[in-house]
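As the next step, I selected for study one protein, both as residues and as discrete backbone shape codes, as given directly below:
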Amino acid sequence: MEPTLSEFQLESLFRHYCYYRYGHRHIAYTPICACGPNAAVLHYGHAGAPNDIPLNSEKMCLLDMGSEYHCYGADVTCSYPARGVFEEKDTIIYNAVLQAQIRVYEMLKPGVSYVDCHKAAETAILETLLSHGILINPDKEDIHALVKKRLGSVFMPHGLGHFIGIDTHDVGGYLKGYPLRPKERGLKSLRTARIMQQNMVLTVEPGCYFINHLLDEALNPDSGLGLEKYFVKQKILEYRGYGGVRLEDVILVTEDGCVNYTCCARTIEEVEHVMSGGKWPPMKDSAPELRRKYLTDPN
């Protein structure tokens, strides 16, 4: 990926590659190709704000794109450093989101609430931000108490994922007789609150963003949120304008766990390997915790 490109050129390359290599005539939704601060705009790239900003070699890029094949949609998000190498600042946020994915895959199986999966992802992100001094816990509260106070929603204001199939955001999230939509910050954006069942196909797409208006609200003691004491203001200032990171995979719920259908480079080592021109897919799976069953065995 060349820093001299524009965001819309990344979209164009994706469209061409899917059709030229695999015969995927249609894409599943309008692509999001966001560089730097644009990654903090959750649905950046629509008709009113096209993917039209030149890339910057110092920025992270968030690419949310999926093709359609035989009327079924894919939905995948990758976040990469435009320069091809992660800096320390990038590594912290990227690993926070990657650990959120792993935490969900460890628990995702029939009988588990998708709301609890969302909270687990928030927990992993908050733990990372705390361990790197971006947040503090002055009263040494249990991490679950911080999740309950909805601190995680400042950094991940959207839901963990959604059903996917014939439609990218497939139906069935809130049906009569099933769990109602939560009302709390962040959780109310979940596209389903259902209990997982075998053969459900969903996305898992945690993210960590630095969105100015959400940060301003959380830091404001008059907002009524009571969250200002958890922020290290100087560290937050360093991430203003950073954008964010999102990773999104398509998951099948199995009898006793889940299978990850998305076989992208995910660990920092994998991403840097691919961006330096390295071969993909690999001969050996270095991150089995990501449940990428078909990464090295297409059968």
Summary: The helical segments are 7-22, 88-107, 114-131, 143-148, 152-155, 212-219, 233-239, 268-275. The two ends are 30 Å apart (CA to CA). The first strand starts at residue 26 and ends at 27. The CA atoms of residues 11 and 31 lie 7 Å apart.
